[in-house]
Amino acid sequence: MDKQELAAFLRTRRERLRPEDVGLASGPRRRTPGLRREEIAVLAHISTEYYVRLEQGRAPRPSGEVLAGIAGALRLSDAESDHLHLLAGTAQLRSGLHSREVRPSILAVLERLPQTAAFVMSATFEVLAWNDLLAALMEDFGSVPPEERNLARKAFLGHPRSETPLYGISDSIEFRHSVVRELRATRARYPSDPAVVGLIDELIVGSPEFARLWEHHDVEAVPMLTKTFNHPTVGPITVDCDSLTLTDSDQRLVLYTAPVGSRDAEALALLSVWGVEGAGQGSKGRTVDASAPGHPLS
Q1: 70 pLDDT exceeds 90?
Q2: Is residue 285 within 8 Å of 131, Cβ to Cβ?
Q3: Cβ atoms of residues 151 and 158 within 8 Å
Q4: Angle, helix 64-73 to helix 37-44, in steps of 10 degrees
Q5: Across-strand partners of 230?
Q6: Regarding beta strands 226-231 and 251-257, do their DSSP bridges make them parallel or antiparallel, or are they unpaired?
Q7: Are 11 and 55 in contact (CB under 8 A)?
Q8: DSSP secondary-structure letter at 46?
Q9: CB distance 254 to 119 below 8 Å
Q10: Which of 107-116, 175-184, 193-202, 220-229 is predicted least confidently?
Q11: CATH architecture of structural domain 3-88
């Protein structure tokens, strides 16, 4: 049970609610944002004293029934409710370190998608494997050191070898918000993973924007259905985005495609040729070297 994280999460969820959201009158004497603690306690069918102690990080572990009542009172989404149970210690945590090893079958899939820019990303936004077209669209991650393959670092700490941040994507603000939300959930799943904790600490210290967003305690990411890359060679390319969860390894297979016959599909085809002849040489299916400096297993 992470008492302090649980306390902060409950407080931020309570403060975002309005009285009218739960059928209460909004009186003129309210001096604090959101609902009062005693109102949440009544809605959750628990004592006010116990709920106050939860928000103060002093209460013992709540039962599943109590957590269900609190989730309903706070109008939590499914993702937020799952996060609540993780923080309270009533959900199964993943043991040890988050996985950075990609299955051979997934590497084979990457090579069999010549018209799709595809890559595999870890729970901490590290690009673990990619195909030629992805290398041509974004960059050949095999040519940079492992610490520069992390999209969270690129989003908040900058791209050391590019004047265009985040590959010129159109939704950079939304992407950064999504990074914070997903890293918050990752932190709850891997509370003792030094790579997870270290990355988050690095971002908090190095980016005031990340530190500000981190204090919101949001965990539900908004799906990105399309994305536009401002590519230096072929210009703007708008792609459809699909993200498939690899449940066993807690990784994601990200696919960028364009409608057949569209100008964007033609641009991807040009990049595909360029990638094979240029940046894509030898890059297919490349993965992180577990013996590299900085890797938790090295």
Answers
A1: no
A2: yes
A3: no
A4: 120
A5: 236
A6: unpaired
A7: yes
A8: S
A9: yes
A10: 220-229
A11: Orthogonal Bundle (1.10)
Please give the C-alpha separations between residue 130 and each of 11, 140, 244, 247, in angstroms, as whole numbers.
Answer: 40, 8, 14, 19
Q: Which amino acid is at 180?
A: V
pLDDT of residue 28: 63
Residue 72 burial by CB count (10 A; 0-12/13-18/19+): exposed, middle or buried?
middle
Angle at 229 between CA 279 and CA 161, to 5 degrees: 55
207: its two tokens:
């980016």
In the DSSP assignment, the letter for residue 53 is H
Domain ranges for the chain, please list them: 3-88, 104-277
User: pLDDT value at position 279?
Assistant: 45
pLDDT band at 262 (very low <50, low <70, confident <90, very high): very high
Task: Please answer whether residues 123 and 93 qualify as being in contact, where contact means their C-beta atoms are separated by less than 8 angstroms.
Answer: no
Are 129 and 102 within 8 A, CB to CB?
A: yes
What is the pLDDT confidence band of residue 67, given thresholds at 50, 70 and 90? confident
Give tens-digit pLDDT for 186-197: 988 888 899 999
Tokens of 99: 């996985």
Band (25; pLDDT cuts 50, 70, 90): low
pLDDT at 292: 38
CATH topology assigned to domain 104-277:
Beta-Lactamase (3.30.450)
